[in-house]
Amino acid sequence: MSFQQVSTVGPPVVFAPATPLSSADRGGRLLVVNWNMHVGNGNILELIEELSRQEESKGFKRPEFVLLLQESFRRGEEVPCPGRSRVPRRIPPPDSGVDIEDIARQLGWWMYYVPSMRNGGHVGREAEDRGNAILSSLPLKSLEAVELPFVVQRRVALIATVTDAQNKPKLRVAVAHLDTRAPLRKGWLFGGPSARNRQARGIVDALKKFDEDGLPLVLGADLNSHLGAAEPAVNTVSKIAARWSAGTKPTHKSGLVLDHMFARFPEAWQSAECIRINNTFGSDHYPLVLSISPEA
């Protein structure tokens, strides 16, 4: 892992179910979802059930899932007291919100979570941190965390290999969340595209280390691209994996296109499609879904 643990957040969490739930009723397409959960306000279980229902209505069997999640959160005493350290303001999860490890346990899925920053100043059992997570109905291995160039807030991207039930590598996935702006002394909003591009180069450089094994690649990211697809960070990531457009619909309630999916597939996977779901499921972002057909 190419990052350093910091004193204001808890340790990474890796969860593997001791007795995975049976996948005998699955066998449909693989759905890779990119979604900013707005710190637990997004309802993962509702999203999974809706996507499963949609797949079955199209004549597919129940799908497998890989969720690439930004702004997931963890709550508990594992998050240390920040002392006098300044921490980011708290984005309140809903009263019914459960943290990402509890969701993984409830589903019986594999999960990898690494906090980027603290979520407010609560302590003890109410302490929280937030960051990226990968949640998968298929096993995860070869887990990596990559601390991106610092701009305004600490950002940690994640990389993992998804395997089939026989532990054979199926594809590599990555998730990233870039800063919303640059520091005031470097242009604030006007300097944001350049700052985010430096962070994009950080995740690209990390992924290039895996080029030789030839595994298919899917990267889901909230690039905070105020310029949409014209943002330099989008072009930077597109150099290693093609951007899969979900059309011109905004991915955030503000009307902006902030979220993107990138993929590098073998020819047999070109029947894949990318769509934006027309429901935020409680978040302020719309999920993007890349569907990979069973022939792949």
Number of strands: 13
What level of helicity do the residues show?
10-25%
Strand order of the largest sheet: 1-4-5-3-2-13-12
Instruction: List SSEs in N-to-C order.
Output: EEHEHEEEEEHEHEEEE
Q: Summarize the main sheet.
A: 7 strands, mixed
**Separation of the first and last Cα atoms:** 30 Å
Radius of gyration: 18 Å
The proportion of residues in beta strands is 25-35%
Count up the helices.
Answer: 4
Oligomeric status: single chain
Task: Describe this protein's structure.
The protein has 296 residues and is α+β, with helices and mostly antiparallel strands. The chain contains 4 helices and 13 strands. It has helices at residues 44-57, 100-107, 188-208, 232-238, and strands spanning 13-15, 30-36, 64-75, 110-118, 128-136, 140-147, 156-163, 169-177, 217-222, 242-243, 259-264, 273-276, 288-292. A 7-stranded mixed beta sheet has the order 1-4-5-3-2-13-12, with helices on one face. Helix 3 links the parallel strand 8 (169-177) and strand 9. The longest helix is centred in the last third of the chain and has 21 residues, at 188-208. It is globular and about 55 Å long. The mean pLDDT is 92.
Notable characteristics:
alpha+beta, 17% helix, 296 residues, 7-stranded mixed beta sheet, 4 helices, 6-stranded mixed beta sheet, 30% strand
